[in-house]
Design brief:
Blueprint lengths: L5 H29 L3 H27 L10 H15 L4 H32 L3 H45 L12 E3 L6 E3 L35 E3 L2 H10 L3 E5 L12 E4 L9 E3 L2 H10 L2 E5 L12 E5 L2
Helix pairs in contact: 1-2, 1-3, 1-4, 2-5, 3-4, 4-5
């Protein structure tokens, strides 16, 4: 049916958005499953419920228009999801794949944001205030998801870069350590509406290290190197963790923009002097750090010394076995 009037055009846009959201709803569980990083996977899982609500708002607009809820094939969303599928199928380091998945997710969010902005402007011009408000509610959710993916992307890229450097260093030293990687921890804590999340670790030079994709959280990299000395061990005692961090000048922090509600700390980190970047991390109290730590059943894997005997800053948060 041709768009002969502005009202026809608006209805066509709503049908397009309706199809886009339904396509995304089917794809999100698969995307979450393929994300190796728990924080990234949790972001997509959370968005499943949001997308269901967004579909519900569009159905309300159909009712306001006196129309049956009906999809119009959204080729744009189909193309973006096909690109995302190609990213997930590519063989490569899991840290890098996670970066690509986060980037693909941001493309989807920006596409949706553009669609909702256009539809909202049409609704305003047509005097459909209630429809415009419903579209704005969804637009704000899409913006929030994009902000969350932006923060995750920044961290994932840094961690993938550092992990790659660490792997090259290990190869150069001829160490017998494997390249198995633990997974960063994230879970819904169900308390105060928090979206619980935890950090990946930092390498022995103090930079953030990737947790990779150990589907079951490991206690560390292994029990020894070529010389047989222990490389890492797991800590759960608050005092021991605090002592280990403060001996190295580190303090507790969270990643800015990852808390989904007012009192949500978000992703936690140990921040080492000279390696944080003021734009991404924010200092928090030890009480706030350990609240997230305990509510999510986490443990901190640490390394006391590097293979060369120097004091190590390597650490990563994992789920307790």
């Amino acid at each position: 049916m041709p768009n002969s009037t502005p009202a026809d055009l608006f209805l066509s846009e709503v049908k397009d958005l309706y199809d886009a959201e339904k396509q995304l709803l089917r794809a999100l569980p698969r995307i979450a499953k393929n994300a190796a990083n728990d924080e990234l996977a949790n972001a997509f899982r959370t968005h499943v419920q949001e997308t269901k609500g967004q579909i519900g708002r569009l159905e309300q607009i159909f009712e306001q228009l006196g129309q049956r809820a009906k999809s119009k094939p959204c080729k744009g969303m189909k193309g973006l999801l096909e690109e995302g599928q190609e990213v997930m199928e590519e063989k490569g380091r899991e840290e890098v794949t996670d970066c690509a998945i986060a980037g693909a997710g941001r493309k989807v969010e920006h596409y949706e944001m553009a669609g909702y902005i256009a539809a909202q402007e049409m609704a305003k011009a047509l005097g459909m205030k209630e429809a415009a408000q419903l579209l704005n509610e969804t637009l704000e959710e899409e913006k929030e998801m994009d902000r969350r993916l932006k923060a995750l992307s920044s961290q994932l890229i840094k961690e993938a870069k550092t992990a790659g450097m660490g792997m090259e260093e290990e190869e150069g030293q001829g160490q017998s350590r494997g390249r198995g990687r633990g997974r960063s921890s994230s879970a819904s804590n169900g308390k105060n509406g928090k979206s619980a999340s935890a950090s990946s670790g930092r390498s022995s030079n103090g930079r953030k290290a990737s947790n990779g994709n150990g589907r079951k959280a490991s206690a560390g990299r292994g029990s020894g190197n070529a010389g047989g000395s222990k490389l890492s061990h797991m800590l759960t005692d608050h005092d021991e963790i605090k002592q280990w961090a403060e001996e190295r000048g580190a303090h507790p922090a969270c990643v800015k923009g990852t808390g989904r509600k007012k009192n949500d700390t978000g992703m936690i980190r140990l921040d080492f002097p000279g390696f944080s970047g003021e734009e991404s991390l924010q200092e928090i109290s030890w009480d706030e750090f350990f609240d997230q730590f305990d509510e999510n059943g986490l443990a901190l894997v640490v390394q006391e010394k590097t293979s060369g005997g120097a004091r190590s800053n390597f650490n990563k948060l994992v789920r307790r076995q």
